[in-house]
């Protein structure tokens, strides 16, 4: 079916299983690790074993006197297979700490995707599900369309402005979400609870230096002055950003002793239903505000069908929360309304 690029990109936060917050498509999860890279997948039966070629540390060849601190670090080189399942094979192909294009500069992560399915899929790195050293960052990268059996390249960039803002002198960890959308995907009929494989969203984490960041202490949402709690029960606390000059950003806290998965969908903004507005599912470990990539919070911006969502005064949406296990028992199914 015909799909507009804007819808495909918006569904970058699309409906599988957040919150989703975050977020992600329903299904089993797995992880892989090799040469300082780890991966988490929400698609059923993802490959759990990453393969890596020899990856010696390589020093940037540019003159260090002209570089920022993060550009002078020795980053791992070589290819690492992050996922190899029935749907696709994803390979990390390298890092470029001195990437620039026009006025844009930053730290580039290069990837290769192979479509292993028997259908056409489009692939992209969703722009609002990225972090660097467990700090949120945003970058709108390319989208590629691959026929069955074809391969192509993707990349993401951590903007230099964010690296400077966070005072990052070494890029030790990058987390991102890969979205794969089949050509017959239909947002209007898509059911996150019965994902037929038309929308796949998996999160991966890579470690350019091979160093592991220490655990990030959790912060109770009720104590966060930048967010207002809009839903709270014995299972979940959901908060939204207060800043009226920014798009709505959500954070969720799992208050149970079991992992859960959340989805926000069926958004209504100032009385207008947003047909493409779904924040797809993300898994939240027991007692955590973060997923297991170590993010201190799950923060997602949702644009929907309005150009300036930050200007809206009222939003409502359906909050779905389920157990993150084989049964996927529904724990919460309620409409939440927030007036700014």
Brief characterization of the structure:
The protein is mainly beta. It is 4% helix and 42% strand.
Supply database-style keywords:
disordered N terminus; 2 helices; eight-stranded antiparallel beta sheet; globular; 2 domains; Immunoglobulin-like; mainly beta; 340 residues; single chain
What does this structure look like?
- The protein has helices at 5-10, 160-165, and strands spanning 30-34, 37-41, 57-58, 75-76, 80-84, 88-101, 104-115, 121-125, 130-132, 135-137, 143-146, 151-159, 174-182, 199-206, 227-232, 236-241, 249-254, 260-269, 272-273, 279-284, 300-301, 314-323, 330-339.
- Strands 1, 2, 8, 9, 10, 11, 13 and 14 form an eight-stranded antiparallel β-sheet that branches. Strands 18, 19, 20, 22 and 23 form a five-stranded antiparallel β-sheet that branches.
- A hairpin with a 2-residue loop joins β1 (30-34) and β2 (37-41).
- The longest helix has 6 residues, at 5-10.
- It folds into two domains: 28-206, no CATH class; 221-339, Immunoglobulin-like.
- It starts with a helix and ends with a strand.
- With 340 residues, the protein is mainly beta.
- The protein is globular.
Computed CA radius of gyration, to the nearest angstrom: 19 Å
Termini separation: 37 Å
Approximately how much helix is present in the residues?
Answer: under 10%
SSE class: mainly beta
Shape label: globular
Domain count: the total is: 2
Poorly predicted residue ranges? 1-36, 38-64, 290-307
Strand content: 35-45%
The residue-averaged pLDDT reads 73
Task: Kindly state the number of beta strands.
Answer: 23
Q: What is the N-to-C order of secondary-structure elements (H for helix, E for strand)?
A: HEEEEEEEEEEEEHEEEEEEEEEEE
- What summary fits the major beta sheet? 8 strands, antiparallel
* Annotation field: number of helices: 2
